[in-house]
Each structure stands twice: as C-alpha cells, then as structure tokens.
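// run 5 | inverse folding | seed 20
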C-alpha cells in the first residue's frame, strides 16, 4: 500500500513539472520589461515593466503572478479558462500601456512589446496547450476553444485597444498594402497546396501500384525537399527568367524570373513529397479485409479506389494537407525576396530599414495563420480518424 502511495506521489509530481516550468517562465516575464518606449521607430528606447508602464499595472502583475504560482495545482478546466483570460488581459495591458505612454498627437513615438510580454504570453500559451492536452476534451469543445481564442483576439484588434501599439501603427500606415499582401500570401500558400494535391495524389496512387517506380521518384522528391529555401527561390530566378525570354508567349502567360510565379513553383516543389509520401502511407494502411470485401462485391478498380481506399486513407491525407499548408505559409515569407509578395515583403523591408515593428507586421500574421491552420487541420484529422474507427 505504501509503495502504491509513493508511486502515485511520484507520478503526480511528474505531471506537475510542466506547470512549474510554465510558472517560472511567466514569473520571469513579469520581472522583465513589458513594453519598450522609443522616441521613434529606429532608436532603442527604454524598457518598462508592467507596474512602471501602467498606473495600476502592479494589480495585474500580482494577479498574473498568482495565476502562474497556483496554475500547477488548479483543476485543468480552471487552468484553461484562466489562461485564456490571462492572454486577453496581457493584450489589453499592452494596449493600455501604449495609450498611456504615447504623448497625444505624437506620430513618431513607438511603444512596442518587450521581452516580458513575450515570455508571459509564452507561459500562458504553454499552460493552455498543456491543460488541453491533459484534459483531452471532445472535439466540439476543442473547436469552441479555438474559435473563442480567434474571436477574442479579433475583437481586441477591432476594438481599437491596441491602436497605439507600434505594430498597429505600422499597419495603419500600410493598411491597403497589408491587405494586398495578405491576399498574395494566402494565394501562394493555398495555391501551392492545391497544385500539390492535384499532382501528388494521382502520383501517389500510381506509385502505390508500381513498386519499381517508387524508389527513384521518392528519391528525387527527397532531394528537392533538402534544398534550402533561399537556394530554391534563387534557382527559380535564372531558370524562369530564361524561359520567359526564350519561349514565345511565356512572359505573356505570367512566367517570369521574379514575382509570384517562381515562388508558387518553388512552394509546389516543396509540397510534393509530403503529399506523395502520405498518399502512399494512407493507401498502404487500408485493411486487406476491406479490399477483399470490395472486390467480392464486384467493384471495379476505380470504384475500390474512390469508395474504399481514399475514404479509409483520409486521416493520413489530411495530415499531409496540414503539413503542406503550415509549411507553405511559413516558406511563403521567403517569396518577398524575389518580389512574390506576401507578408515577407514587410519582413524584409523591416530588416533593410532596421525597423523591428515592420518585421513584426509580417511575422505575427504568418505565425498566427500557421497556428490556426495547423490546429484546425489537426482537429479535422482527429475527426476523420474517429469516423474511420466508429462501428
């Protein structure tokens, strides 16, 4: 009995270790500057902690500190609710600090999030993800949490509470350009995904029935996957520049050495391997009994593929879609180097101008888009697996 009790205590302590780590990260964030005030977008400025940046900032600091300390012992549902409330409070505190520190009518001053904000936000996000993973809520509740988080952040942005934050000032100065580049980024990410599915699914089905072709083709796709992204985008410039200058009508069709076309091709090449490999894995996972039953019913080869194999392979195929979409959203940033548009335009402009707020204007939407897409497709994959295993 004593051994069992000791084992239970050791297991409980082990489960609490992540919570303690998140608490330490959050407390370190509260000790560091929450924001950085700069007279303009170039100068380094001065870091201010939460209680220095806001008149009642110490109240929020104490509340967050209490949350971080108590989190490892809180029930999981309470931890989820309080983590979401903490993220919302941290965002509102950032906006309030920016409004309080920026002199009225001053268009040059900048108040940007500093190390304390990022560390505290990281601790709250990790605490939320850990609680969700341990609780393992049903899919409907996971969708509600994701939708609530997106809606909450969207409501804060729409309310104007963050308008004085440096990143939002950069957005206000470039709103039309931002929307244009956002459409370009989405077109690159989803366009490369659509092309990869259109080419990779048939290729995967073909290789599933022809083992001799599988090795050479997968080797070529593996080689493409190992080429560094900057090198891949650089290769596209002379190749398609030569094609546009040599082949009649190529330039009129949109082929060029710089711009969205070579960026789309590069993203498509990167996306092929996950689609083909997961298609092969999904088709190979179809139970032999299901195939024998389908053939026994007199189904043709095409009917077996469309009505039995692909539906049963759907969870693995959705996993490929998740990998490709998240990868393409991230790699599309590099397209800004070759005039392909997207959020990378702001990232590289900010690096050239030593303006980190402009870098964040491109980086933060990319990260948010990749996170939401990855989580949503993971939930769809879970749902398809449950449907597959349902009696």
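// decoded
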């Amino acid at each position: 009995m004593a051994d069992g009790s000791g084992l239970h205590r050791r297991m409980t302590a082990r489960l609490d270790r992540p919570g303690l780590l998140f608490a330490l990260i959050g407390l370190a964030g509260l000790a560091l500057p929450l924001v950085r005030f700069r007279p303009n977008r170039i100068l380094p400025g001065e870091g201010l902690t939460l209680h220095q940046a806001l008149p009642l900032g110490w109240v929020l600091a104490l509340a967050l500190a209490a949350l971080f300390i108590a989190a490892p012992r809180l029930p999981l549902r309470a931890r989820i609710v309080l983590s979401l409330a903490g993220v919302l409070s941290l965002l509102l505190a950032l906006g309030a600090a920016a409004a309080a520190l920026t002199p009225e009518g001053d268009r040059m001053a900048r108040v940007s999030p500093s190390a304390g904000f990022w560390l505290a936000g990281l601790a709250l996000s990790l605490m939320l993800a850990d609680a969700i993973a341990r609780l393992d809520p049903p899919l409907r509740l996971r969708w509600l949490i994701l939708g609530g988080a997106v809606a909450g952040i969207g409501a804060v942005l729409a309310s104007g509470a963050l308008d004085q934050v440096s990143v939002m000032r950069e957005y206000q100065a470039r709103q039309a350009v931002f929307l244009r580049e956002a459409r370009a980024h989405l077109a690159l990410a989803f366009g490369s995904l659509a092309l990869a599915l259109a080419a990779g699914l048939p290729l995967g089905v073909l290789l599933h029935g022809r083992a001799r072709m599988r090795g050479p083709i997968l080797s070529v796709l593996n080689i493409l996957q190992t080429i560094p992204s900057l090198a891949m985008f650089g290769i596209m410039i002379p190749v398609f520049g030569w094609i546009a200058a040599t082949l009649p009508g190529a330039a009129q069709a949109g082929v060029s050495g710089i711009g969205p076309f070579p960026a789309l091709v590069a993203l498509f090449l990167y996306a092929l391997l996950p689609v083909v490999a997961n298609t092969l894995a999904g088709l190979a996972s179809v139970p032999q009994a299901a195939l024998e039953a389908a053939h026994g019913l007199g189904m043709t080869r095409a009917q077996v593929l469309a009505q039995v194999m692909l539906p049963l392979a759907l969870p693995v195929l959705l996993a490929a879609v998740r990998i490709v979409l998240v990868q393409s959203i991230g790699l599309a940033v590099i397209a800004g180097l070759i005039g392909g548009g997207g959020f990378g335009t702001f990232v590289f402009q900010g690096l050239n101008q030593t303006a980190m707020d402009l870098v964040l204007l491109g980086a933060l939407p990319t990260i948010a888009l990749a996170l939401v897409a990855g989580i949503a497709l993971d939930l769809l994959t879970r749902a398809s697996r449950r449907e597959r295993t349902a009696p």
